[in-house]
From TrEMBL:
Catalytic reaction list: (2R,3S)-3-isopropylmalate = (2S)-2-isopropylmalate
Lineage, highest ranks first: unclassified sequences, metagenomes, ecological metagenomes
Pathway(s) it belongs to: Amino-acid biosynthesis; L-leucine biosynthesis; L-leucine from 3-methyl-2-oxobutanoate: step 2/4
Protein's job: Catalyzes the isomerization between 2-isopropylmalate and 3-isopropylmalate, via the formation of 2-isopropylmaleate.
Gene3D superfamilies for this protein: Aconitase, domain 3 (3.30.499.10)
Protein name according to UniProt: 3-isopropylmalate dehydratase
């Protein structure tokens, strides 16, 4: 029976499936940032656990880091809560470890969904999770990428798995050549306008067609980011 890319990646990573369809899905790459990880690491600490596979973790501070004032170092983070989250991530990675960590002030630091691909942490065929709603960006690289909540961040850290039910398949095919002045964002906004903001609920969307094939990787990331 023919399978979609989603079917193939899912099947390769399912550890166990219950009668109600709930599956234990193995996770290859766990992207971690400073907002959804503090409670997760604290949960590990309270339970006396360690991350199941430190080599899967790639971490960076990106939600609370200023774009100016770097010459002031950490004092450039003027909001106390933001500064605490950034320094807490530093402490947690020091305590628990990571395959790679790009802290505030590191020249490789940046938006987690940009530096993951930049640093080769996102690869085709991977299952990727991050405690952020834009994790679908990594789908541009032929990965199955889930945005997860804080309790799920802890679960993945502790077990290297995610509990999930398999979604339905949806193919969105975009044919033709973009008009002058149009970009990948115009494509995805047009799709959203057609199917609605909840049109993909319960589905994993694969994008195809000549217009998608003609996009740069950055363009494909834009489409998947808004999927």
């Amino acid at each position: 029976m023919p399978r979609t890319l989603y079917d193939k990646i899912w099947d390769e990573h399912v550890v166990h499936t219950e009668e109600d369809g709930t599956s234990v899905l193995y996770i290859d790459r766990h992207l971690v940032h400073e907002v959804t990880s503090p409670q997760a690491f604290e949960g590990l600490r309270l339970a006396g656990r360690k991350p199941w596979r430190v080599s899967s973790i790639v971490a960076t501070a990106d939600h609370n880091t200023p774009t100016t004032g770097w010459e002031r170092g950490y004092d450039g983070i003027t909001d106390p809560t933001s500064k605490q989250q950034v320094t807490t991530l530093d402490a947690n990675i020091k305590a628990f470890g990571a395959a790679a960590f790009f802290p505030f002030l590191d020249k490789r630091q940046g938006i987690v969904h940009v530096i993951g691909p930049e640093q080769g942490a996102t690869l085709p065929g991977m299952t990727v999770v991050c405690g952020d709603s834009h994790t679908s960006t990594h789908g541009a690289f032929g990965a199955l990428a889930h945005g997860i909540g804080t309790s799920e961040v802890e679960h993945v850290l502790a077990t290297q798995t995610l509990l999930a039910k398999k979604a339905k398949n949806m193919l969105v095919r975009v044919e033709g050549q973009l008009a002058r002045g149009c970009s990948a964002k115009d494509i995805v906004l047009a799709i959203i306008g057609r199917i609605g903001t909840a049109g993909g609920t319960g589905y994993t969307i694969e994008f195809g067609g000549s217009a998608i094939r003609a996009l740069s990787m950055e363009g494909r990331m834009t489409v998947c980011n808004m999927a």
